[in-house]
Predict the structure.
Amino acid sequence: MQSKRALFPNNGLPYLLLAPQLIVTIIFFLWPAGQAVLSSFQRQDPFGLKVTFVWFDNYQRLLRSGVYLHSLGVTAIFAISVAVLAMGLALILAAAVSRALKLGRFYTTLLVWPYAVAPAAVGLLWWFMFNPSVGILSYVIRAVFHYDWNHRLHDTDAMILIVVSAVWKQISYNFLFFVAGMASVPQSLTEAAALDGAGPVHRFWTVIFPLIAPTTFFLTMINITYAMFDTFPIVDTTTSGGPNQATNILVYKVYADGFLGLDLGSSAAQSVLLMIIVVTLTVIQFCAVERETRT
Amino acid sequence: MQQQGMVEKSPLLDVLTHAVLIVGEAVVVFPVWLAFVASTRIDSDFLTGVVPMLPGPHLLDNFGALLSAGNSTAGAPPFAAMLLNSLIMALLIAVGKIAISITSAFAIVYFRFPGRVLCFWAIFITLMLPVEVRIVPTFKVVADLGMLNSYPGLVIPLIASATATFLFRQVFLTIPDELAEAARVDGAGALRFFWDILIPLSRTNIAALFVVLFVYGWNQYLWPLLITTDPKYYTVVMGIKRLATVLDGDTQWNLVMAGTILAALPPVLVIIVMQRLFVKGLIETEK
């Protein structure tokens, strides 16, 4: 691990400096995570009086339960849709802004603020617009497509509602990273391509896009993590996982089973499976960054 | 921005560029415009079935009612109190995360001691344990410590920060060794060097990080939802859900949207006013 040549003598001070962070980490991160692992191997009776050790029973029940596998599928569809749409739209906007010369800054200011809107508020904004009785969008859909939009009854409508909300919020984040990535592409390369007769669109795909591949990869991981874990408030304020589990993504299910359903063993096993997913995503990202900085 | 060197002019593409941006802006702004319009209306305006598109005259009534009285039928306390709670929570989270991360980074970069690598990994691991995946046991720890319905309960479990620690580590590694050597020759202790040299040199990084962390703290939803049952400690972001959860037929859209605007506005203003710092903070923390 990198460090300094000029060091201060160790007189106990470093432990004092690290103590607050370590204490918080141990009490509120490592200990609960350990507890989750432990109770994932246990079953508690509904009154919390008796705890039995059941080995992998909670996991086996989960992986055999149609509801859990369905939730896994719903999460995959949700995460992929959010990542593809939020990144695609952001890429188009970023490419446009880097062409927009003087107005670029102005457009940027107008595009970045959704990042700061709380996900819970984002959910309510779109819940209002898609509301079957007063929402403007459900009204337009009814008038133009003669489709009776109702995210409380139709699975697909509910999924579209949470995807649109999550994408709307995430575009500004992706946009900023794409703009930063494009700004670091050397001017000389695009100019050389232009002199060779490559048009602007061709230049974008053959010069700029390959050069911002690290940004694209990084954003893919971030967007999947965002869709899987940070969208809890959006689901809670719009669909609450319904109808018929259609939007019951994994984080929402952990919460619902643990706090509303009080199925603690199952909720703990779900927590552990989620941790494994986060660890995998983090390791993939970390290895990629390491390789990047080494070359 | 600096594309004067570009060889060709392409009017068609210029038009397309601006068209794309204007449509993009419109899509981004439209939901907020509708919310604003709704917040200026009275509830009977929503009975006709189509949402009004232009503002009405009730802006001050709606916001005034929410700020001072809240909404008793929906069980939402006065918004002024919830906004204050959110402000306290966001400030304490931002300051706390920066304080404990900057000291951790200082220890890891400028000292050599047994257990150093272990500490580094313990902090790194928090990256992989978002509160959403370990909610039940974390809730239990906080309950056992008697921290439900309290500001420490809202703040402390969230202030460990691997990203902030790594950011400061990165900043310190770029600071020349000669500075620490000079400080030592002058007889300055480690803490003196930290206060007089490291902190002033990291000022912009601290400010940039503060903006990002303030937004993070303000927008917390699940955690305050779990650990507060006493309305005295409700934050505004979790409070707006209560406005909306009255039976759908009776939803007072004007108040729900006014509440949503109140909850969303402060962090939005912060990043618009401090856009440069915000972009710097955002891009740096993800490195």
Observations:
- Chain A touches chain B through 106 residues (CB under 8 Å).
- The longest helix of chain A spans residues 66-99.
- The mean pLDDT of chain A is 89.
- The longest strand of chain A covers residues 42-44.
